[in-house]
Amino acid sequence: MKILRGLSAVAMASAMMCTLLLAEEAGKGVPQAAPQKPACCQKAEQKGKKCEKRCCVTAAREGKACGKCLAKENEKQGKKK
Ligand SMILES: [Zn+2]
Ligand SMILES: [Zn+2]
Which pLDDT band, with edges at 50, 70 and 90, does 2 fall under? Predict the structure, then answer.
């Protein structure tokens, strides 16, 4: 009985390790939530306002995030790396 208990403990431990590893792998697979709106619009929203940039206002009218500002931000992020 002692041996069996020892084995089951090992099995439990390895099973837990497996789930931990699997959870880690799953976490890696989840794509990070990319900001759909440019920082200028996000900042404005945080203050309870709307971005006053003309390009952003135009995009907002069409129910979109401003592509111009997003592209600019993506460029900046690329340069930082
Ligand atoms: Zn904006
Ligand atoms: Zn814009």
Answer: low
Residue whose C-alpha is closest to residue 65's, from 41, 46, 47, 45:
41
Ligand of minimum distance to the alpha carbon of 68:
2
Alpha helices (H) along the chain? 2-29, 39-46, 54-61, 67-80
Quick one: which of 78, 80, 55, 77 has its CA closest to 68? 55
Ion ligand 1 contact residues with beta carbon within 5 A? 40-41, 51, 53, 56, 69
- Between 56 and 80, the more confident residue is 56
CA atoms within 13 A on the CB side of 6: 3
What's the 15 CA to ligand 1 centre distance in angstroms? 49
Instruction: Name the average pLDDT for the chain.
Output: 81
